[in-house]
Amino acid sequence: MKNPVLFIHGGGEGAYEADRPLAASLQGALGVEYDVRYPAMPNERNPTYAAWKDAIARELAAFERKAALVGHSFGASLVLKYAAEEPLDGRASGLFLIAAPFWRVEDWDVPEFALADDFAAKLPAELRLFFYHSRDDETVPFTHLAHYREALPSATFRELDARGHQLEGNLAEVAADVLLVR
């Protein structure tokens, strides 16, 4: 049986197609022992947390083993929110969050997507957390990573150079961490 990975794409028009190379890169780097599921999330152009939460729950319920949860951009922020608000019941081996926006800062203050003040305390203690962000990301400012670092000092943070918002389509660092947590 293959090791499951759930990849949640970003939001906005065309995000599913834009993130397809990331999911393919992850699958290629992980190899045949892993199965990267890449579902199209509902209404990517105008997403709601409720709809994406339900979709994530359905996807997780379909796995027979612990899954690595990978999210990109908007998807990363919702994967983290889901893990902080919904019972994972040991169904996740780790969270791998790429270019995650922090929804409580100037110009990004969206209450529907924001994490609760005590979100860090609500995450399962055994859950490994990894964040990846390129310093030259023009979509989600690199400064958002500092907010996560402050709230989650025990998480692993990978600061990348000259990779942009899409990490140049290369998720080798993410794959290495997924293999580490296996």
Automatic annotation (TrEMBL):
Domain of life, per lineage: Bacteria
GO terms of molecular function: hydrolase activity
The record's section on PANTHER family has: SERINE HYDROLASE RBBP9
What name appears for this protein in its UniProt entry? Answer: Alpha/beta hydrolase
Native organism: Sorangium cellulosum
